[in-house]
Amino acid sequence: MTPTTPTPHISAQRDEIAPFMLMCGDPLRAKYIADNYLENAKCVNEIRGMYCYTGEHGGKRLSVMGHGVGMPSIGLYSHELFNFYGVETIVRLGTAGAMRPEVPLRGLVIAQGASTDSSWFRQYGLPGNYSAIADFGLCEKAAAWCREKGIPVYIGGVLSADAYYDAEEGVIARWARMGIAAVEMEGAALYANAAYAGKRALCVLTVSNSLLTGEETDPDERRTSFTNMIELGLSLV
Questions:
Q1: pLDDT tens digit sequence for 84-112
Q2: Which residues 6+ apart lie within 8 Å of 181 measured at CB?
Q3: Which of 13, 150, 170, 211 yields a CA-CA distance of 20 to 30 A from 97?
Q4: Which domain holds residue 175?
């Protein structure tokens, strides 16, 4: 597809989106970040309710946008942003479900790598199993920020799952045995898109629920809280 803008999914002009992008599954979390953390924020996309704002934080220009649920959704938006809009860096600020006891509710996770049960990687025709990993520079900078702030963080592998409600029993324990700390639904596609485009990506996650204890946070807290994750994302601009 010819990389022209606007696209059928993003109404912004190319120069209305910054090279650095924060993305959230919930577009209302993107709006919350724009309203509370950005200066001179301008809404540059409302198509399908997937709000995108561009503004400044600490004198640096950035954009923040929703990406929806699942790899097909973030895959579509991140592909257009990387390849059509010239975005160089995407940091996903998302939620995850804990799969191991050392990852507490509301705890912070930096996804060093993203395994998946999806068929997403088949499109590349690779003669093996692809390892979707974060940009090391972003990962290193995020870890240093957490150390400096004294904020506990788990750095390791997550599972990017296709199904939120999995009918197969025992699958969580099998992934956890391989060191997977938490489950989310988008990271592997984001990392693959970034690698294919020669760009940078990182997933920073807050544990919104535990698959071990059944504890969970409510939707309002997920949308308007989790400030450590937001401030970490902003520190990477």
A1: 999 999 999 999 999 999 999 999 999 99
A2: 98, 99, 100, 102, 103, 109, 154, 156, 157, 158
A3: 150
A4: 14-235
